Amino acid sequence: MRIFSKLISHIFNPLFFPLVGSILYFFITPKFNPPEAKRLILLAILILTVIIPFIFFLLLRNLGWITNNGLTHIKERKIPLYIFIIVIYITIMKITTFDFSIELYYYFIGILGALLSCLIMIYFNFKASMHMMGICGLTTFILGLSFHYEINITLGLSLLVLITGIVATARLYLKSHTYPEIIIGCFIGVITQFLTFGYWL
């Protein structure tokens, strides 16, 4: 069970959710986007939101500023969060712009809001679950897309809800988070996406 929980935590790493949300958006949206444009957008998002933060993470680990992969110590989360906030901001300004896609633009705005909320909580010595922020934010975004495009994707949403439960269970089993940290992380992920609905839904 411990190996399975670690595997789940790695597969559903918070770094992956901006890219996964973008992939699902292109899969769901009925809007036409040239294949070349989609590939370039996804490649840019991959580089900015996954590869660059991962490189910085390895650098911080080698410098001794991070002691473990799970960032279990609250203070160790500050610098990675600042880095991720910066790359998400760059992504919004340069890649998922308002003119390109209003839906993706506000999805990333929601992600930025969630990261800022998580950072603020760190200064109050509270460690919200970023895994839950990511999966709950993604689920809320996909729910919004289903309403926006009037598409029945109940099966996909059910799968995301199931994954949410699995991720929460894995984080609790590994004792990476407490119940309040899981709940608050889920709440932040949902609310930050939900607040953007009024601008694009």
From TrEMBL:
Protein's UniProt keywords contain Zinc-finger: no
Residue intervals passing through the bilayer: 7-28, 40-60, 81-98, 104-124, 155-174, 181-200
UniProt superkingdom: Bacteria
Protein keywords: Membrane, Transmembrane, Transmembrane helix
Signal peptide start-end: none
Protein name from the UniProt record: PAP2 superfamily protein
Species annotation: Galbibacter orientalis DSM 19592
